[in-house]
Design brief:
The chain has 298 residues and is of the alpha/beta class. It has one domain: TIM Barrel. It is built from nine helices and twelve strands. It is globular and about 50 Å long. It comes from Sphingorhabdus contaminans.
Length: 298
C-alpha cells in the first residue's frame, strides 16, 4: 500500500453527501416517467444517467425539473473516464456542474473505469489495472472531480471479465484506499460483484471483508446473462437487460445483514419491460430490507 497518493479532496460538507433515503429506487426511463410522476410514492428515489440530460434547454430539462421536484435524485455518470490516463475532460465537468447546480442531487456517482482516450470516446466502461500508478491517477481524478463539482462522489465497483497480470492490489482494497484517500464513498453494485466473483472464481464474502461497508452510500441490483466463451466456459455478462437473479438478491440480503440498510436501486437499461415488472423487483428488495430489519431487532 505504500506509495499511494493521499491528498484528500476538499468540498462543501453539505454538498450531496448521500441524502438518498434508505429505501428502494429505480433507474428512471422515459417510458415510465409519466406513470411514476402521477404517483411518486411508488418509489423512494430515482436515478438518471447524467449524460442523458446535458442538453442546453428545451423539454428535456423541463422533464428533469419535474423529476428533481418529485423525488430525491441520484445522478449516475458514465462519461468521466475516472480511470483514464488523461486529464478529466473540462467541458464534461462543466456540463456536469450545470446539471448538479440545477437539480441539487442527493447523490452523484461514477464508475471505476475508463471510456475515452486521445479524444476518442468509447461506448463502454473499460477496466483498469489495479496497481499503484493507476491508484494514484484515480485519486487525482476523483479529487479534481469532487473539487470542481462541489459534491462527494460515490465510486462504483466494476463488472470484469479479464484480470491483468500487472494488477498488484485486491479490487476491494483498491476501492477502499481510493475512498480513504479522497473522501469519496462507494456505490456497491451487487450484480457487478456477483458477476466478477463468478468470472474470476472469487469469494464474494471475502471481497466484502476487504471494504468498510460504512463507506457504501448506495447499492445497485441488476440482471446479467450467461454466455459461452471461445473455450466453452460460462461467462456472466452485466447486461442490465435481464431480471435480477435470485443469487443477486441473496447477495444483497447478505450485504444488508452485514452492513445495514442502504438506498437500493433496481437498474434496467436494456430491453426495458413494463413498469409493473420493475415494481415487482422493487417489492422484492423491500421484502429483503424488511426481513433483515426484523431479524436485527430479534
Amino acid at each position: 500500500m505504500s506509495g499511494a497518493h493521499s491528498t484528500m479532496s476538499v468540498f462543501a460538507p453539505n454538498a450531496g453527501p448521500n441524502g438518498l433515503p434508505p429505501g428502494v429506487g429505480i433507474g428512471l426511463k422515459r417510458a415510465h416517467c409519466e406513470a411514476l410522476l402521477a404517483d411518486p410514492s411508488l418509489v423512494d428515489f430515482v436515478e438518471i444517467h447524467a449524460e442523458n440530460f446535458m442538453s442546453a434547454g428545451g423539454p428535456n430539462l423541463i422533464l428533469l425539473d419535474r423529476i428533481a421536484e418529485a423525488w430525491p435524485l441520484s445522478i449516475h455518470g458514465v462519461g468521466l473516464s475516472i480511470g483514464g490516463k488523461e486529464r478529466l475532460d473540462r467541458e464534461h465537468l462543466h456540463r456536469l456542474r450545470k446539471l448538479i447546480d440545477r437539480t441539487s442531487p442527493a447523490s452523484f456517482s461514477e464508475h471505476l473505469a475508463w471510456s475515452s482516450h486521445d479524444g476518442v470516446y468509447f461506448n463502454d466502461l473499460l477496466p483498469v489495472v489495479y496497481d499503484t500508478p493507476t491508484l494514484n491517477r484515480v485519486i487525482v481524478n476523483i479529487n479534481e472531480a469532487q473539487d470542481f463539482l462541489g459534491v462527494r462522489m460515490l465510486l462504483e465497483n466494476p463488472s470484469t471479465y479479464v484480470a491483468f497480470s500487472a494488477s498488484s492490489w485486491h479490487e476491494a482494497e483498491f476501492l477502499q484506499q481510493i475512498a480513504q484517500s479522497t473522501g469519496c464513498g462507494l456505490l456497491l453494485d451487487v450484480n457487478n460483484l456477483y458477476v466478477s466473483c463468478y468470472n474470476h472464481d472469487w469469494s464474494a464474502q471475502d471481497w466484502l471483508s476487504h471494504i468498510t461497508l460504512d463507506l457504501v452510500g448506495e447499492i445497485h441490483v441488476a440482471g446479467h446473462e450467461a454466455i459461452q466463451d471461445a473455450e466453452g466456459q460460462t461467462l456472466l455478462i452485466d447486461s442490465h437487460g435481464d431480471p435480477v437473479g435470485e443469487p443477486v438478491f441473496e447477495l444483497l440480503e447478505h450485504v444488508i445483514t452485514r452492513g445495514g440498510i442502504r438506498p437500493v436501486l433496481v437498474e434496467r437499461d436494456n430491453d426495458i419491460p413494463p413498469l409493473s415488472v420493475l415494481l415487482q423487483e422493487t417489492d422484492q428488495v423491500r421484502q429483503i430490507i424488511e426481513r433483515t430489519a426484523y431479524a436485527a431487532v430479534l
